[in-house]
Amino acid sequence: MTRSTRQPDSVATPASVTPAAALATVALPVAGGALDRARRRRLLIGLALASGVLLLAGLAAGSEGWSLDALRWSAGPEAQLIVGQVRAPRTLGAWLVGALLGLAGALAQGLFRNPLADPFLLGSAAGASLAVVVVLAAGGAGIGQGSLQGGAQAVMQFGLVGAAFAGALAGVFLTLALARGAEHTTRLLLAGVVVGVVLSALSDVLTTAAPDALRGKQAFMLGSTSFLGWGSVVLLAAGLMLTLPPAWRLARALDALTLGEDSARSLGLALSRWRTLLVALLALATGLAVSQAGLVAFVGLVAPHLVRRFAPAPNGFTLVASAAAGGTLLLAADVLARSVVAPQELPVGVLTALLGGGYLLWLLRK
Question: Domain count of the chain?
Fold first, then answer.
């Protein structure tokens, strides 16, 4: 009697599974029952309604308090100019900045499997701050010095916006270089911490050498939505359209990571490549938001927490809902910043820090 050596007709091995097929077979870590779908639907409807109300509030909130008269068709040309060229772009821009930060926060927390991760974890904040200080210091050094004035003007033409965006991307790329890629999550996290500390120290050194840059750096660190115009709105909307769809398509990779790295590798996923793509989307979303509004704290950290608390779901839904929640949170903070001490304004980053920090303290107590 001989033992049969006949093999099965087909054997599925990790090496034979394409990345797209592997992502399609990832088991979702959160059940998708009728109750869960109802909670997600209610959350999206609530965020949409809140955003609509806040958009109207943003159009009505001005330096002299609330005024709905400016929203009427019969309003004078001056009122229409204020609404159309100042309040409308600022309101829409604040929502888009918050959406990018919420998306980046959900990507960071899913990538590192850590609910305390935020968009600024990989050195983007420190890189943007250093670039802004360099531009401010170079501009200040050129004032009154003929030999340096032309160079300083050329630097200033590049603008704080471009410098902040380039600095944020440079900080993330430096983190990737120090971590030798995105293969090891712990190494990437530690590299981000080191890059953040070193770049922040360099920023402090430059600020000490050029005290005139301190005020500009402080305004950037506090965050502000008061300089958002229609150009910023177009740029932010394009950035959201470039980052959200691919992030949603890569959400299955984040779902696979929640099962553990060994399980993800058994599905045939090239974790280093997927992590690099996710980090690139995280850097782009964070860099755009930071370049337009400065370092707005806690929005990217709190938005995913709110989504997971009210509607636990796989990462695909969490990414989209976190973007909507981030936009709603920052727009609410922007409306409050314009209204609390009108005709003066509070830095919007201060309000987001107070509201976000208060929410996290409440979570810790719970």
Answer: 1
- State how beta strands 65-66 and 61-62 pair: antiparallel
Residues of the chain above pLDDT 90, percent: 36
Percent helix, strand and coil across the chain, each to the nearest 5: 75, 0, 25
Token pair of 317, please? 């839904």
Token code pair at residue 293: 């509004």
CA triple 84-90-96, angle to 5 deg: 125
Please state, in angstroms and rounded to a whole number, the distance separating the CA atoms of residues 344 and 112: 40
CATH code (residue 302): 1.10.3470.10
Determine, yes or no, domain membership for 70: no
pLDDT at position 197: 93
pLDDT tens profile 325-366 = 999 999 999 999 888 877 788 889 888 988 888 888 887 787
Supply 52's token pair. 């609509």
Question: Which residues contact residue 98 at a Cβ distance below 8 angstroms, ignoring those fewer than 6 apart?
Answer: 296, 299, 303, 326, 327, 328, 329, 330, 331
Q: How far apart are CA 223 and CA 330, in angstroms?
A: 11
Q: Could you tell me the residue range of the domain that residue 245 belongs to?
A: 77-365
